[in-house]
């Protein structure tokens, strides 16, 4: 695992999870169910936690949603799912937290957006009410500023001040500064109201990659709060994945960021856990954390006109993902395993030797045999109609033989 110099930040305890300080970068996600629908929300939180989400945020926007939160927590506990639940509040959070004390107690963290906590003379009062509840329940708070819901009074004031300068900044730079000022001013206000410095996290969410990088570099220079990274609307499919990776990877490489979320727009009825998988893969491919064995596979070329190696790579990856919850529970270090599924003799043997376990399948016109390499040494040669099943069995056997079984399993 790569060791990068991390920006110094104050660690924050969120339920059973530590964010910031020397703790690993934490993966989080958010449900898209109606929180008042307890059955659906519990099922989705369980799926997200099983996929590896270490914090899960839920929308708390109505009395019904707030009333459901304690039941959601309790049902998850009965299922032995103990992932911390974060409450996402906008507009009426001050009322919901005061009206539903059981919700305020059940949540592991509150997310407050200073851009819509209240307007005009009500803003400071309603923000204070939420912070007072957080203090009373000893809960951390994320001050989550959003590009699309920025405090317009603050932005107007900064625009006016900028216009009076001898060399004014462009409008986009003022907008970026407004995000940072909103977050830091709100954090300072929270501390004045009694919230401890080590109970505050900050995020400044935008939808553009260059804006994300610029804002967080600025933020990192001006505070030591733990920082949550993510594009606020990354988009769908490959666009969302590429945009999130392009922005967050730059910042993570610079040691900026203590927790991340990949805000992918799912396909209709799509799998919400994809955002967790992408977040994990960003951290793992950068060498920052290990979550599950990596499957290395070649892209294919004119030497690999058969789709067999593609099908085998997919089967092995799916098998590993399915087995990983059990393997993680029973074996120490299994997430560091690498498996190579290669399609021809050009790079096949070499890549297979570099992996924990690798197979070099025959390319077009090559002998119909598939040598297997185990920790760099030549192992069995597979052939015939059951190569996939035999290689999958070798993967399972490798885990049992090469990783120490946990004492409690």
List the helices and strands and how they pair.
Layout: E1 12-14, E2 17-19, E3 26-30, H1 38-51, E4 55-59, H2 63-78, E5 85-89, H3 93-99, H4 101-106, E6 109-112, H5 122-137, E7 141-146, H6 152-163, H7 171-192, E8 200-205, H8 209-222, E9 226-229, E10 235-236, H9 237-253, E11 259-260, E12 264-265, H10 274-285, E13 294-297, H11 308-330, E14 338-342, H12 348-354, E15 357-360, E16 370-374, E17 377-382, H13 387-402
Parallel strand pairs: 3-4, 3-11, 4-5, 5-6, 6-7, 7-8, 8-9, 9-11, 10-12, 13-14, 14-15
Antiparallel strand pairs: 1-2, 15-16, 16-17
Helix pairs in contact: 1-2, 3-5, 6-7, 7-8, 8-9, 9-10
What does this entry look like structurally?
This protein is α/β, with parallel strands linked by helices and 409 residues long. It is built from 13 helices and 17 strands. It has helices spanning 38-51, 63-78, 93-99, 101-106, 122-137, 152-163, 171-192, 209-222, 237-253, 274-285, 308-330, 348-354, 387-402, and strands spanning 12-14, 17-19, 26-30, 55-59, 85-89, 109-112, 141-146, 200-205, 226-229, 235-236, 259-260, 264-265, 294-297, 338-342, 357-360, 370-374, 377-382. The strands form four sheets. Strands 3-4-5-6-7-8-9-11 form an eight-stranded parallel barrel, surrounded by five helices. A five-stranded mixed β-sheet has the order 13-14-15-16-17, with helices on both faces. It has a two-stranded antiparallel sheet with strand order 1-2. Helix 1 (38-51) crosses helix 2 (63-78) and helix 6 (152-163) packs across helix 7. The longest helix is centred in the last third of the chain and has 23 residues, at 308-330. The radius of gyration is 24 Å and the shape is elongated.
């Amino acid at each position: 695992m790569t060791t990068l110099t991390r920006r110094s930040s104050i660690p924050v305890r969120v339920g059973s999870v530590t964010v910031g300080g020397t703790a690993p970068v934490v993966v989080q996600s958010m449900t898209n169910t109606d929180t008042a629908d307890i059955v659906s929300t519990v099922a989705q939180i369980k799926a997200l936690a099983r996929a590896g989400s270490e914090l899960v945020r839920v929308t708390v926007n109505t009395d019904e949603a707030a009333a459901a939160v304690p039941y959601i927590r309790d049902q998850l506990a009965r299922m032995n799912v103990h992932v911390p639940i974060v409450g996402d509040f906008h507009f009426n959070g001050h009322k919901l937290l005061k009206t539903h004390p059981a919700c305020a107690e059940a949540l592991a963290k509150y997310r407050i957006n200073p851009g819509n906590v209240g307007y005009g003379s009500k803003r400071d009062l309603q923000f204070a009410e939420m912070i007072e509840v957080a203090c009373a329940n000893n809960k951390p708070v994320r001050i989550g500023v959003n590009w699309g819901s920025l405090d317009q009074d603050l932005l107007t004031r900064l625009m006016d001040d900028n216009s009076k300068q001898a060399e004014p900044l462009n409008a986009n730079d003022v907008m970026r500064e407004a995000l940072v000022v909103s977050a830091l001013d709100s954090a300072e206000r929270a501390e004045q109201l009694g919230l401890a410095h080590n109970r505050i996290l900050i995020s400044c969410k935008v939808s553009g990659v260059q804006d994300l990088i610029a804002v967080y570099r600025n933020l990192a220079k001006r505070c030591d709060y733990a920082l949550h990274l993510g594009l606020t609307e990354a988009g769908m499919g490959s666009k969302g994945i590429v945009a999130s990776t392009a922005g967050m990877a730059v910042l993570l490489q610079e040691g900026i960021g203590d927790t991340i979320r990949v805000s992918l727009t799912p396909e209709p009825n799509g799998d919400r856990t994809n955002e967790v998988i992408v977040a994990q893969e960003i951290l793992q491919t950068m060498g920052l954390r290990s979550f599950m064995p990596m499957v290395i596979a070649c892209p294919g070329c004119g030497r690999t006109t058969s789709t067999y190696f593609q099908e085998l790579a997919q089967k092995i990856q799916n098998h590993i993902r399915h087995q990983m919850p059990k393997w993680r529970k029973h074996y120490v270090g299994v997430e560091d395993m690498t498996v190579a599924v290669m399609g021809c003799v050009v790079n096949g043997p070499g890549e297979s030797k570099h992996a924990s376990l690798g197979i070099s399948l025959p390319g077009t016109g090559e002998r119909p045999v598939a040598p297997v390499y185990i920790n760099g040494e030549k192992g069995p040669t597979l052939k015939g109609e059951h190569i996939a099943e035999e290689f999958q069995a070798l993967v399972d056997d490798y885990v049992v033989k090469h990783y120490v079984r946990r004492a409690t399993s």
